Amino acid sequence: DLRGHAMPVPTDPCTMSGGFSDALECAGRLVDHHLYEDQSYVELSGRLGVATHKYANASGFSDTDYPSLDLLFPSLKSMPFVGQVSHVPLPQELLQEFENVQCNCAMGLMPEIKRAWLTVDSTIYMWNYEDGKDLAYFDGLSEVILAVGLVSPKAGIFQGHIQFLLCLATPVEVVVLGVSFTGSPQDSFDEMHLQPDPLFNLPTDNVGMVSIVGTPQGRLFLAGKDGCLHEIVYQAEDGWFSRKCRKVNHSTSKLSYLLPSFLSFSEADPIVQIAVDSSRQTLFTRSQRNTIQLYYMGKDGWSLSRVDYVAMDTIVHKSCVALRTGNKSLFMPLVHMSVIPASESSTLHLVAISQAGVRFYFTTTPNGVPGPPQLLALVHVRLPPGCSPSSLVQRPGNTVHQAFYRKGTLLLSSSQSDEADNLWMVDADIFPFQPVLIESQVVSPLDGHTWAVAESLEPGELESTASLSPLPPTMVTQHTQPNRRFVFLTTQGTYFVTKLRPVDQLRYLLELSQGPSTDLVQSFFTLHKETQACSMCLILATGSNQQVSSWATQAFFRYGGEPHVIFPTTSSVEQQQQQQHLADQHHHHAPPPPAFSPSFPLPPGGGGGGGSLSTSSPLSPPLPPSSSSSYPMMGAAPPSSSPVPTASLLSGGLSSGGGTPGSLGRAVLGPEFRMSGRHDGIFRYLSRLLRPVWNELLVVLCRPQGNVSQSQQFFSRFSPDAISIIFEQVCNLRSFLERNLQLLTATSDNLAVSSPTNVHQKLLQFMRPPEGMATNTPAHIQHSLINKYRADAYTREHNSLNSLYQLVVQCCECLALWKLLCEHQLHTTAQSLSENDQYQLQNTTFQSLVIGGRELISGMISSLLNRHAGDTSMTESLMAWLRDHTPSLFSHNDAIASEAAELVTMASSASKYEQINMLRESLKKYSQVTHQIDLPSVCERYRAQWYYEGIVDLCLSCAAHKDPQNLGLHFYNSGQPPSDATGQKAFLERQQAYVPIATTLGHLLAAQSQAPLSPSVPKRPGPPPSVPTNPTDEQPDPKKEFDTMLSVALRSNDKLFHITIYGWLMCNGLTDQLVEIRSPYVEEYLKSAAAGNQKENRCFLDLLWRYYEKNRNYGAAARILDQLAHKESPELSLDDRMEYLSRAVMCAKSCSVPTGASGIGEFLHELEEKMEVARIQLCVVEALRRLPKSTDTGEAIAVLNSELMDITKLYGDFAEPFDLAECKLAIIHCAGHYDPTLVESLWREIIEHELRNVGRVPRDTQMHSMRSKLVDLGQIYLRSERFFPLEYIVVLLEQCSCKFQWDVGFVHESMSLVGISLPELFHIYDHMFKSKDPYWDSVGQPLHVLCVMQSLLSSYLKAPSSVASYERAAFNTTVLDAISRYLTEVESMSPSTKKVASTMNLLRSLKTEIQRIS
User: Fold this and answer.
1) Helix, strand or coil for residue 200?
2) Over 438-458, what HEC string results?
């Protein structure tokens, strides 16, 4: 715990009001600020003022381009820029070989393997240039060696021991040899071995090769004297249409092979140099006539196409225009070219150097826009030092024969004689953050003539330069990067020139002065500004040299400045506004010329925003008219606002009362608190230490190397070695802070304080009283205000540094933990994390881990300890290490949680009795630290040992700890208002704590269906599966365990938990279990759920009435069922509603008087009436379905299904509009509305509708359909005589029978089926005959009624029993009297008619038969 340390507790509101996390966030914001400052450098093209690719501008002709520190700071005259030059002579064995040269001799360097080489005719010698040892040679050639090149081989072509390819070119052949090494821990290139047998041997086709260069991918290019670019293409085996190795000419077309050589009219321009930019996949060639060509190797680097070229005449012309000079000797010839990779500039791509030391910068894209190369254009010309008319610096002259450029450093070898060279080193490292390019230069003599120049590369440095974005200046990375060493190969041997970093210069000055109390060190602070100089002091103060560390610490405190307050005056604000306005105009309309005002005593070299240079100079040439805003500056930094005071970042914004002039021209007058250089230097140094990891993701998700089939895993983005380096540096800074407690406890009383410049006068201006008041402010008031602001400034800095210390401690612990995780198989530890923690880990940066990653850190530590839970010694060792190295990350509570986890692990292998005791003990421990355990993971381990009771208890305990005041339940009972953020948080935390219980129940539920215990059919032939004999191996019954766990869970008094469990049961379809729960919360839950969502509450209402029914509350159940029946919902059909009503009626009838609700009888009567109306509504729906389908009928059916309706609405909205006669008859019958005319008309409509439906079918079908309809309706209305007008119906049917020629007895037979007695039918027909209806005469059937009566009486004679015996005699008498009348009537008709005669005979026959049975 950080509170256990001896450091003072912060008291600043920024760090104390919100606690430890706010202090970390406060310090983290400052780290981000200083990282931004380090990243706010202007790119190379912006510093050179490059505006467009269409013309070139120039620099280097002003004194301020190459300022002389001797004039600015005479005391720094002795400050070196290069270290002591070391010399390693040539191996003695080679000295005599120079005397044997007959045809050709050449030397060169191979910095990739720390080797120099020498060719003497056909023999090549190679040796280690570091010590002159490990001399190797190859003399297997018969021709003179013209070119030598070292190339990385293609992957997968050669055996693993071949690390490089050595390519040797002679006039007749090209030979490729394999190179391997036997390394040592100190040097991987200790001993070199050349393969004696060539890997490839190709003819040159009589083309001499001048240079050989390879690409990182293994391609091998050769520069030919024929002016062509050649490539050796090689592969593992011969193909169908390609050889294993062949030479390709990329500079000529295929047709050129068909032409004889004497037809070539152009003179060859030999290529003398090839340069490859692997970051952009481009290749450049330089010819003997100084023509530069550009090739593009494609996005993947395996193709090649020529893009553009620039001739020397073009270069000279553009240079003369840019410099407005006619002196062409400065620009030609070219001696070297170097690529500018993406790690140095995104817009400038190539630099070429002339014999006079002039640099030519080229771009390959229009206006520097990123993308594939499209052109090759000269955009800037920079003259070498000494070209200013008033310059006192020596010029290289036109004698430069070797040049080298890399990472902003230019080396020139200028020949003064054949025996000696002058080395020129030009560099901008001491002016890294200037808006224009300002460089320093140094000249050193070298013995001998320089043959080759290169930079000695450290392992991995080539990979670091492959970045696709510009890297920051050396000032930012000097604490991790070693000194740059340059190798010069001369006839006298190898010379090593070390370029000193700014921190090396500071070390030299401290050692030279034997302390910081000299003008040398003070001038160094003035040169680099306090922030940068203090950060460099910290590099030395945290180093291993105790004496230098002590001097650096003294310099840090002596020259680091003090916190102070700035009081801006009206005049100063106006001046700043005017300068800002001019700067904005200048920035938007023209790129700044590369010069600064000579009136400045020093070109500041401080950090970003640490100072600015004037951009006006009378020596600057005017830009061409095309320089306008239409071409934005290539690589220029965006317009920056005024610097924000560091103190303002402590609260996330501008300091109170302070202000800086903005672009709107308004400024708030008030004090600005500025931190000291010591404060900013520490933050700057810490940000640089953490820069490789601060904003980087910690892990990468990928498959293990060499195992494509395996699933993706988490691997650390940083190696343990890299973490160790950063950890050691941060710990050294922590030790520095702890050794210098006065830095964190300093106040204005115990430190020497110097007031800001003119603070007294500025304070008087700031305090100027209003007009009319006395101006003689007392002196003691002025001094008290000064002291107040001064004390406030010290307090702010003190609190900020305390926050910094806490951040440093936290970083140390996080780095130590991450290193431990990497050493213990991070990918395995991450696999056992929860899904949420894995997601967080995948998206976590080091910054977020340090500031807000406590939960993730806890999960990682728990996962690590769980992995070794079975190994007690390892677990104890890890816990001890964590307590010692990460006390704030692994606290006492963490130890308790780890002990509990150990008990759970031990329980898995213990006996049943011991297992239960261990699990219960672990539950007690876990319950003490529920706020920091990974609850799902612990519950998962409990579930693996079937400790379901522990899962319930632990989850409920965790919920109670997270919400001790039960705010979650209050939030739920209040309707979950969005405004209650605290309640909502507590509610969600409780819900999260309940999740493992629901998950475990879900597993048990799934196990019930997956592993049935009842006998089943074997899944495969063979013997039955073995049954476990050990009782401890027996699997528990999932059903039993589920019921037990659910019973334990429901014993809880946590109402919100009950509600959660009820919801889970609902989601899993366990409604039967829900309604059987005996708990007071069930009814409340179901009521609340049903009332919460009226549109989707059917499910809950269903459960509610079932719950009431289970608990014999039939009255409440009936009312819920009635509510469901009347629920407006398209999901409920009319059948569903009728079922609900039917159940409601049953429940109401089951309700006894003592237990029933008041008025249950009336409610039952109401339900029965509703049921009757619902049946009519169902009839309407069925009638509508029988109608032809249409939109209207479909909508009507949907409406009828959506709710129950009254009979009035059924009649008016549906039965009447759709002419549903049967439904109308049923409705008026139900309503008891009797209207004889309406009833008769409805029956007519019913019969006519049925006739229309069967109008085109056979006669028998018509009769069958009509009889069925009559029987169905007759049975319904037979007892309601008013709604079943029998005589009217019989007459109507007889008329239809006569019309459609149905059977004579159809009507009376149908009526008999309905239930009408024979005497009643006879009475109706007799009345029909007596009525003398003219209808029968009109249809030509005057005797139809008599014929029907004959059929009726014939049926009677066949079955006399159809008439009751007690009324049979009377019926017979009535019939005989009627027959007599009929005979009289018939006899009065014309007897000649056959029909009449037949009727009379039948009547007489019927009379005789009836008389017989009377």
Assistant:
1) strand
2) CCEEEEEEEECCEEEEEEECC
| C-alpha torsion angle, residues 793, 794, 800, 801 (rounded to 10) | 150
d(CA 1296, CA 1302): 8
CA distance 540 to 551: 9
Residues with Cβ within 8 Å of residue 1392, at least 6 apart in sequence: none
d(CA 1273, CA 1376): 33
Contacting residues for 1213 by C-beta, under 8 A, at least 6 apart: 1205
Q: What is the token pair recorded at 687?
A: 């940000």
List Cα–Cα distances, 302 to 83, 151, 220, 278, 299, in angstroms: 42, 16, 11, 11, 8
> How many angstroms separate the CA atoms of 867 and 461, rounded?
38
State how far the Cα of 223 lies from the Cα of 285, in Å rounded to an integer: 8
Closest listed residue to residue 849, CA positions, set 712, 718, 959, 685: 718
Contact between residue 714 and residue 833 where contact means Cβ atoms under 8 Å apart: no
Residues facing 127 on adjacent strands: 116
Global pTM value: 0.65
Region of 944 (left: φ > 0; alpha: ψ -120 to 50; beta: rest) is alpha
Cα separation, 74 vs 66, whole angstroms: 16
Provide φ and ψ at 158, rounded to 5°. Answer: -110, 175
Instruction: Tell me if residue 1237 falls in helix, strand or coil.
Output: helix
How many whole angstroms separate alpha carbon 360 and alpha carbon 712?
A: 48
Query: pLDDT for 1225-1249, tens place per residue?
Result: 878 877 778 788 888 888 888 887 8
pLDDT digits (tens, 9 = 90+) for 977-1023: 888 888 888 889 888 888 988 888 888 888 887 655 445 556 556 56
Amino acid code (one letter) for 1143 = R
Neighbours of 1088 (CB within 10 A): 15
Closest CA to 789 of 977, 898, 658: 658
Give the Cα-Cα-Cα angle 77, 478, 31 (nearest 5 degrees). Answer: 120
Q: In this predicted structure, what is the pLDDT of residue 706?
A: 59
Rg (CA), the chain: 53
970, 984 contact by CB (below 8 A) = no
- The whole-angstrom separation of Cα 107 and Cα 1192 is 101
Alpha-carbon dihedral angle through residues 1152, 1153, 1156, 1158, given to the nearest 10 degrees: 150
- Which residue ranges in the chain fall short of pLDDT 50? 1-18, 241, 254-259, 261-265, 462-466, 570, 582-633, 635-668, 748-775, 1013-1014, 1026-1033, 1153-1157
Rounded Cα distance between 1168 and 1173, Å, is: 9
State residue 687 phi and psi, 5-degree precision.
Answer: -65, -35
CA distance 231 to 209: 11
Tokens 């898995």 -> residue: 908
Of 174, 320, 317, 291, give the one whose Cα is nearest residue 228: 291
